[in-house]
Specification:
Blueprint lengths: L15 E5 L4 H12 L3 E6 L2 H11 L3 E5 L5 H10 L3 E6 L17 H17 L3 E8 L23 H25 L5 E5 L4 E2 L10 H8 L6 E2 H4 L1 H8 L8 E6 L4 E6 L9 H15 L10
Parallel strand pairs: 1-2, 1-4, 2-3, 4-5, 5-6, 6-9, 7-8
Antiparallel strand pairs: 9-10
Length: 296
């Protein structure tokens, strides 16, 4: 694994990947590397105009499908239109945006980053043959999920805490899905990855003074290009012998950059009881139930 790059991706000819948020940043780099390795890629994006431009660049192996994770009706429509795929990469996300709500009334970051992907995975799992990769963040470390107020209806909104909560939810979901697949005797895998510090369009959308620091940070040596930030999720999505439930990230500079490998994480993510409660609340809010055993 040492020094692993996109050039080490095994041949993906004949395999189909769904990548959410594939029109820019990590998603674009992931789709680009997968197409180069021979895969067919569904660019699942809210902004289909930008996705069409990416598909035109990548060629006939890339197709575009409308998906707005902040609208459960859009999630359901997308899922109904997908015939099948080998791998789902839950990549799309928002970071530290001002308070707003999704179409369904969820806090935007929890609703997009976690609940939208939770519902999408529930609907697609029977159609996914091999694995699900969910993208988290090192910022999960500041997450302190409040199950009684998942959508910030009772508390004063704190955008970075809300982002951390959503990324901890991503990590917990990926680990819980792995545990449930294993318990059901499924051959399918659930992996989790994070990009470290990657310079992407995700930064600079807080609409306050922190945007300036984000833009400066993207120019510092700590920040790696988006193509390098995509490596952990590419590793998780393509390598044949990865262990389900593993969290991958960069291995240098405290997990901020470098080749992909196993990543450390806040051990609260191993709290099985809390993960189960988050799962139940996510099913209640989205109205989408997982049938892991029937998913094969």
């Amino acid at each position: 694994m040492s020094g692993w790059t996109a050039a080490d991706i095994p041949d993906q000819t004949g395999r189909t990947f769904v990548v959410t948020g594939a029109n820019s940043g990590l998603g674009y780099q992931t789709a680009k590397a997968l197409v180069k390795a021979g895969a067919d890629v569904v660019l699942a994006c809210r902004n289909t105009a930008k996705a069409d431009a990416v598909a035109s660049e990548l060629g006939s192996q890339a197709t575009v499908a409308k998906l707005d994770l902040a609208d459960l009706d859009s999630v359901r429509t997308f899922a109904a239109g997908l015939t099948g795929a080998d791998v789902l990469v839950n990549n799309a996300g928002l970071m530290a945006v001002p308070f707003r709500r999704t179409t369904d009334g969820f806090e935007m970051q929890m609703g997009t980053n976690h609940l939208g992907h939770f519902a999408l995975t529930a609907l697609l799992l029977p159609k996914i043959t091999e694995r699900v990769v969910t993208v988290s963040s090192t910022v999960h470390q500041i997450g302190r999920i409040d199950l009684d107020d998942l959508n910030w209806e009772k508390r004063r909104y704190r955008r970075w805490r809300a982002y951390g909560d959503s990324k901890m939810a991503n990590l917990m979901f990926g680990k819980e899905l792995a545990a449930r697949l294993d318990a059901a005797g499924s051959s399918k895998k659930s992996l989790i990855a994070h990009p470290g510090y990657a310079a992407t369009e995700l930064q600079g959308r807080t609409e306050n003074f922190s945007d300036l620091f984000a833009k400066l940070g993207n120019k510092l040596p700590i920040a790696q290009p988006a193509a390098d930030g995509a490596l952990p999720q590419l590793y998780a999505a393509t390598m044949p012998d990865v262990e389900s439930g593993t969290f991958f990230g960069p291995t240098q500079l405290f997990g901020m950059r470098g080749a992909p490998g196993r990543s450390t994480y806040r051990k609260a993510a191993d709290d099985v009881r809390f993960r189960g409660a988050l799962w139940d609340e996510s099913e209640r809010l989205t109205g989408e139930k997982f049938d892991v055993a029937a998913a094969g």
